[in-house]
Amino acid sequence: MKKVKLGIIGCGIAARELHLPALRKLQDKFEITMLCNHTEQKARDLSEQLGRVPYVLDYRELLESSEVEAVDIALPIHLNFKVAKDSLLKGKHVFVEKPVTANLREARKILSQSEASDLVMLVAENFRYRKVYLRAKELMKKGKIGKPYAAMWDLFNQVTLNSKYAKTKWRQHPKYPGAFVSDGGVHNVAALRMLFGEFTSVKAFTKSINPKIGSPDTMSLQFRSQSGVDGVFNIFYSVDGYWENRLLIFGSRGSIIIQENKLMLKNNSEDDYIEEVEDDNGYIAEFTDFYNGIRKKKKVLSTPHEGLKDLEVIIAALKSAESNRSVSLTH
Amino acid sequence: MKKVKLGIIGCGIAARELHLPALRKLQDKFEITMLCNHTEQKARDLSEQLGRVPYVLDYRELLESSEVEAVDIALPIHLNFKVAKDSLLKGKHVFVEKPVTANLREARKILSQSEASDLVMLVAENFRYRKVYLRAKELMKKGKIGKPYAAMWDLFNQVTLNSKYAKTKWRQHPKYPGAFVSDGGVHNVAALRMLFGEFTSVKAFTKSINPKIGSPDTMSLQFRSQSGVDGVFNIFYSVDGYWENRLLIFGSRGSIIIQENKLMLKNNSEDDYIEEVEDDNGYIAEFTDFYNGIRKKKKVLSTPHEGLKDLEVIIAALKSAESNRSVSLTH
After folding, report:
1. CB contact under 8 A, A209 and B241
2. pLDDT confidence of residue B175
3. Does 3.30.450.20 match the CATH number of domain B4-126+283-300?
4. Bigger pLDDT: A224 or B176?
5. Which of A172, A315, A330, B98 is most exposed, with minimal Cβ within 10 Å?
6. Where in chain B is the domain with CATH 3.30.360.10?
7. Of all helices (H) and strands (E), which one includes residue B167?
8. CATH architecture, domain defined by A4-127+283-300
9. Do B231 and A220 touch (CB under 8 A)?
10. Which residue, among B208, B226, B232, B235, would best test binding to A if mutated, counting the most A CBs under 10 Å from its CB?
11. Class (C level, CATH) for B128-280+312-328
12. Is pLDDT of B249 > 90?
């Protein structure tokens, strides 16, 4: 099948470090035909790296090109909506970094627009494609831990201004609610929704411990879900002296423990089962899904609808933290 | 100073396994002068063990004895109120196992009664006396972790009917709200209040995974406190395949990690500080406090007022779980 001619809009960290390694492995599926970046230096550097792929400084120029049939939008979050909207208007398939947009109003608009078109739009939420979570889902479906009833996710780390992500000005002064806990936390929410279905209510508190990296940087979110699996998701970005990324899933007959790409299945009557899942964090899978959406007309996994649902949870959590009330999510 | 003549009411697990080892080390302070248990066998066994201390089957008989000036009440929770009330009426100092009573109405009544008397009443909440928590408090006071902002306590284990505690009929069919999560959780609430001050609101969910041990057996409690330290306390008694008891305290300049009696102080700029705190879980300290209350007229640490406050948090959490709302605690 013909390669998809891909234009990359935004030559920052996401494009260079997250997307490019995957695209290099998918050269039978994608051809990078054009680049765009507002700061010329970044565009030129990436162009050189890719063997002098043509670049432009204005994304509207890229959208005019017949050499581009799909775009990879890897921009500051607050630009997602405008660029995705214009891309769809110009007949381009859209692959856009999470979160789908900066707010729910924009997310609902882009959802309508994409649903009204025949174009493929995929929200690049890699956690929906990460093998370790898909494997956990499979094990639960097989009944390996009985009936799941709770999920506890602890993400404790320290992001300082030395972090490449925290250095980006748009993260320090975010034009979207929730700063790091929204930008980062939307990943975990996506995985939790994928594993346990829709959240019915959330209750959260947030804190700003190191305002330099953007506020808030700390959130504890208690959720209840339609499936009856309730839990807590803690995302703390200013923890000094402790580091952890651990998802515990408790079932009536066993537990699943996930730490990064390591999955453990434990119960008190059988031997532990431990699996190190080989994974590139889902990037190859999400681009492959995008390709299959375009060339094979398959429905993609990470639709704008899913992106909207992820964002709804984050926004509800922020609202809950502000009001100190439980916020319900209706569907 | 004269030894306190102590009558033990209830010769079950708490008296035999928790109180007796401490009392044996405090023979200069306490003399066990009488025992009482409804089931004669238990009373007789303990009497033999103690060199034939006289025993009775009805606590009212014990309260009539001039050889008893203070009582150690180690009974099923729902009996605490009546026996404590009668003991105070008969002029005996009262040492009563936690939680202070089965409900708030009783707790308020016994508080009034004890405050109106000159007698010492101590709620035997050993977590208020555990060195490891007192040490954490001291380190925080010294500014070792900067400004504390969050506390996350995970208590995950599996209590089955093989557990000596779960075997007790009054725990399987509790005549007090909250079953194991109340009976057990009140300990951690006491420690958290001691460390971080009064809770201002709670939001919880509860579950009943193994109804045989009493319902509920699972609770996740999000709390906010007056001191600005907010957090989550998870108490899960039916976890199959995973075990943990870990309190994390996060501050602006470091973290404290407590696992049982081990305390670690960590931050990203200095070497870790690790301390194994020698402790009998606070039993000697609580009896000593009781003794000093009686003989030295010192105010005890674990008053009925503190017991009431602990219980208020648990009751608010259960109410929150039922309503799925945040419940505020006013003071």
Report:
1. no
2. 84
3. no
4. A224
5. A330
6. 128-280+312-328
7. helix B164-167
8. 3-Layer(aba) Sandwich (3.40)
9. yes
10. B232
11. alpha beta
12. yes
